[in-house]
Amino acid sequence: MDLKFRYLFGYLLCSTCTLYIEGSIQKNLRYFETIHANDLTHTIVKRGIKDSSHPYNQIKEVNFKTHGRDFRLIISPKKDILHSNFKAYEVDGDGAEKLVHINHDDFYHGRVFGESNSHVSLHMEDGVLTGSIHLPDETYHVEPSWRHLPDLDNRTMLTYKQSDVKLSWEDSDLAPNAMGPRVCGYVKEGEELETAEETESDKWTSEHHREKRQIDQYEYTPTKTRCPLLLVADYRFFQEMGGSNTKTTINYLISLIDRVHKIYNDTIWQDRQEVDGFKGMGFVIKKILVHGDPTRIKSGEAHYNMIREKWDVRNLLEAFSRAPQHGDFCLAHLFTHQTFTTRNSLVLGLAYIASSRQDSRGGICSNEYFKNGYTLYLNSGLSSSRNHYGQRVITREADLVTAHESGHNWGSEHDPDIPECSPALAKGAPT
Q: Where is the active site (predicted)?
C-alpha cells in the first residue's frame, strides 16, 4: 500500500514525518509534524566551575528541525516558577502523602538564537521536550506524542504551530443550537451556575458602570505579584495525562503552570486606556499532590478523588473545596480527566469567581465559607483534560482552560456576546 494512502487510513509508519491522519488529533490541529528525541542535538555551551543555583551557571544549546526551519535554542535552567518551599507528594488511597523528588534542572527557559524578541519555555527529560517557542510571527508547541498518537514510541514528539490549533469548544457541530460550546461556567456562591446560555450583557452593563465609578476614585499598584498555588491531580488525571507515572504527572503540571504564568506575567492589567496599568502578575507553585489511586471512603461523605461513574461539575468543585489545607494557599486547582455537561453545554472547567464586593466569598485568597454543615474554601477551581471530543487535550488547549479558570478566580467574568468584546477572527480575535 502506498505510504500516502496508509496515512489516510491511519497507519503510522515513521516517526520523523509529516502526518495527515484521521483521528482525534486531526480534529484539534490543521497540520502537525513529529520529531524524535534521536533527531535532537544537545550541547553544553557553558558550565560553571562551581555548583551554583544561578540560572546562567549552565547554558545549553538544543538543535532540531521542524516545520521547514532549523531551531537553535539557547536555554538555561529555570526555577522561579517553583516556590522556595515547594514540595510534591504522591497520595495513596488512604490519603497518606509520600514525598517525591523532582529535578528542578529539567525545566528551562531561554531564546532562539538570532531572535532577540523570542522566548523559549521547555521541560526536557530523556531528550523529550514539552513546551513552547515564542517568535514574533508565530508560536510553536512541542509535546510528547504518546498522549495523542499511541502507535508511536515514547520518545517521539508532536510539533505544531499555534495558528494551526482548532480549539474543540469552537466546533459548532458540538452545539448546533448555540454559538458553540463554551470552555466553562463559573460559580458565584449563592447563585446558580452561569453558562454561555445565559444572557449576561444587561447585568454586565450595569455592573461595569458601577465598578468604573469606584475605580475612578483611585489607582492601585500591587505589592504582591505572585499567587502561591496548590495543584492536585486526581487518579483519573494521573492515569490519562501522567501515564500512571507520578513524576510525569508532576512535570506536566509544572510545565503547564509555567506557560500559564507567562500569559499572566506578560499581560498589562489596565482598567482604562488613560491609565498605564501594571504587569508582572503571576503564579508560583508551592505544593503538588498526585493521587495514584482512588480515595477509599470511610465516613460516607463524597470525596473529589473517589470512584464515581459520573460527577456533576459543581458538586465536584464543592467536594474539592472542602479540603482545609486550601486555606494555606492563594489558590487551589484540581486537574481531572472526565467529561462534564451542564444545561446542554460541555464544560472543561469551573471556578469560584472573586469579587470586589466587600464580604463576598470566592476566588483568590478567599476566606472560609460555611454551607450545609461544611466548611468550604472557595479559592478553588478545576480543569478537565478530556476535551469535547472525549480525547486528551493538547497542551495549548490545557493552557487556555487553566488560564481561563484562574481568570475567574482573579475576578474576571465572561465578556458579553457583543461585537466590542467578541470580535470576529478577521478583526483580531485570538485563535
A: 405
